[in-house]
Amino acid sequence: MSEVADRIKEIIKPENLVYAKSPVLNDDIMHYCPGCSHGVVHRLIAEVIEEMGIQEQTIGISPVGCAVFAYNYIDIDWQEAAHGRAPAVATGIKRVMPDKYVFTYQGDGDLAAIGTAETFHAVNRGENIVMIFINNAIYGMTGGQMAPTTLVGQVTATTPNGRDVDLNGYPLRITELLAQLPGAAFVTRQSVQNPAAVRKTKKAIRKAFEIQAMKKGTAFVEVVSTCSSGWKLSPVESNKWMEENMFPQYPLGDLKDSSRADADLYRIKG
Amino acid sequence: MAKVRGAVVVDTEVCKGCNLCVVACPTQTLALNRNVNNKGYHYSYMENPENCTGCTNCAAVCPDSCITVYRAKFEN
Ligand SMILES: Cc1ncc(C[n+]2csc(CCOP(=O)(O)OP(=O)(O)O)c2C)c(N)n1
Ligand code: SF4
Ligand code: SF4
Ligand code: SF4
Ligand SMILES: [Mg+2]
């Protein structure tokens, strides 16, 4: 045993460090439930900001939803928006400060229910912003009510017998719709259920910020996420449930990767 | 032949015992401790430290950024 302890002591030295928490994350302990995807995505955003060296130039817009306090964790400038209005607030900030990196961070209730209009029109205008969309198929913050993205048959506080299409309509694949809009430059759907997925999501977030620097239009990153409290499963069971149920409805991968559409395509002739 | 060995340090007071790092570890290094931290969470620790390769998978999935990873090469 002491041989193992000696070996560990030899390994734990500054010159052997291969991973440490990003300095762009501050020391506040996150209020999220154990295992919540929000924490993983916060960390990836912080790491991208650190690696791109843009901590002083980045402004985040936090939503209403569990991530309302995102500003307590990532050490950049923030503006909190009213429920669903983050893309409108981001538009204003980006237009008066075009050299800043501006991103919204929104849940499915925020982005795809109350904020649908702001979401669609910001992307359709091709605002040079990044939008991070945490789709956990539920209203986490308010106690687990049905969201537009809730799956058919999924039990929530407001669908105790499961989502019924006759009563509640269908799960909204808003990301597919946004990919149709000419203002969308980069649209992707990722997840964070295992180390490989986490690394892919980080690459996607980095690409989204780089697209903003190139002023190519809106870069939109959906992260299919878990809400173990709302789903009433453990974090590990939640990942499994997500893989089995969410991924068929919300398949992972890039939906669009191009610069903003040519305005000539849309111009009147003559 | 040189062998790569790793070790992790868990910030036990920040850990929420979610178990995601335990299942993400390809070498069964980690487990949740029988003891709890001040918040009542069974924190993650190296149950089998000799297994760790320093691959950083555990840190990649940790929502609370409480894992630091080290890696070194040894000749034996
Ligand atoms: C104008 C307004 N309407 C309703 C609410 C109540 N409310 C707070 S958060 C929320 C939904 C949160 O769900 P989501 O955006 O999916 O975020 P999550 O908590 O799941 O991350 C709602 C309806 C509010 N705060 N303000
Ligand atoms: S309620 Fe759901 S989304 Fe909110 S912190 Fe808990 S697990 Fe995360
Ligand atoms: S660094 Fe890799 S091997 Fe070591 S505990 Fe973490 S996941 Fe396991
Ligand atoms: S993933 Fe992080 S918070 Fe969860 S048990 Fe492991 S060290 Fe603790
Ligand atoms: Mg939600």
Write the SSE topology.
The complex is a heterodimer of chains A (270) and B (76).
Chain A: H1 2-11, E1 17-19, H2 37-52, E2 58-62, E3 77-80, H3 86-96, E4 101-107, H4 108-114, H5 116-124, E5 130-135, H6 165-168, H7 174-179, E6 184-191, H8 195-213, E7 218-224, H9 228-231, H10 235-249, E8 253-257
Parallel strand pairs in A: 2-3, 2-4, 4-5, 5-7, 6-7
Antiparallel strand pairs in A: 6-8
Helix pairs in contact in A: 2-8, 4-5
Chain B: E1 3-10, H1 20-24, E2 30-36, E3 42-46, H2 57-61, E4 67-74
Antiparallel strand pairs in B: 1-4, 2-3
The complex binds thiamine diphosphate, iron/sulfur cluster (3 copies) and magnesium ion.
Could you explain how this protein is built, in words?
- The complex is a heterodimer of chains A (270) and B (76).
- Chain A has a seven-stranded mixed beta sheet, with helices on both faces.
- Chain A has ten helices and eight strands.
- Chain A is an alpha/beta fold and 270 residues long.
- Chain A starts with a helix and ends in a 13-residue tail after the last strand.
- Chain A has one domain (24-261): 3-Layer(aba) Sandwich (Rossmann fold), CATH 3.40.50.970.
- With 76 residues, chain B is mainly beta.
- The mean pLDDT of chain B is 96.
- Chain B is elongated, with a radius of gyration of 12 Å.
- In chain B, strands 1-4 form a two-stranded antiparallel sheet. In chain B, strands 2-3 form a two-stranded antiparallel sheet.
- Chain B starts with a strand and ends with a strand.
- The interface between A and B is medium-sized, with 36 and 34 residues.
- The complex binds thiamine diphosphate, iron/sulfur cluster (3 copies) and magnesium ion.
- The site of one iron/sulfur cluster (SF4) has 12 residues of chain A, from helix 9.
